[in-house]
Amino acid sequence: PGAADHSIPFRTIADAYRLEEALRELEQSEADKIRVAIVGGGYSGVELACKLAERLGDRGRLRIVEMGDQILRASPDFNRDAAMKALSDRKVWLDLETRVANISADTITLAYRDAEDVLPVDITLWTVGTKVSDVVTTLPLAKTERNQLKVNTKLQVVSRPDIFALGDLAESFDATGQRVPSTAQSTFQQAQYAAWNIWATVNHRPLLPFRYQHLGEMMTLGMDNATLTGMGVQLDGPMAHIARRLAYLYRMTTLDHQIKVGLNWIAKPVRDLLSL
Prior knowledge:
This protein has eight helices and 15 strands. It is α/β, with parallel strands linked by helices. The chain has three domains: 3-126, FAD/NAD(P)-binding domain (3-Layer(bba) Sandwich), CATH 3.50.50; 134-202, 3-Layer(bba) Sandwich (FAD/NAD(P)-binding domain), CATH 3.50.50; 217-274, no CATH class. The chain is globular. 28% of the residues are buried.
């Protein structure tokens, strides 16, 4: 109760602007502490906690509330361990096996086993769960209980082979029968298959069943810290941060975009130094 009215979701650009505005108001206030509760110990919650802890510094009092017995349940052990260390170094409190009983404008009620605690809070961030776009929910197409579109291995919507769907708006299984995770990595791979299959449909060529290949996992754990695993490599710290940025730069669609983003990354430290 209270999540819809008193927490800030973290899914869209509008949510990010809303969080930024709330942070600026608190930073400009005379409060000696800025208390932030982050609901969800998944990728978004952990990455957000690390960056907010660095931004708020000694004024920050951050906690992650997670119903499970560990954060990043689907993450490799190496990345989870690196994340635990990053959170500990930044003094982020972990409430594991804990559920949110209630959220008000300035408190959060946490339930652990048979006890409940009411804690003061300035911002509550809600990072758990994904919501399918309202546009998708209104489409007269086959859907799952979570309103995701049902697709076959060729990414065609069930009963509508002329429509292709990918990403987290669709429940997808690949050619081997494994469920495709709702991640940017899998969506990027699906896009290549979807593009080919659309072309193949138009030109009466055989369609390709999607095959997901897990290439590894990268996480940001602060302004200049990250962790990554994949292709036989395990890396954390500043070098992982650089490797992660280079990987994202490589994945950008055009050379012009790559140059603009790369130059912005190079120039940002200089701008920050000049603004001091």
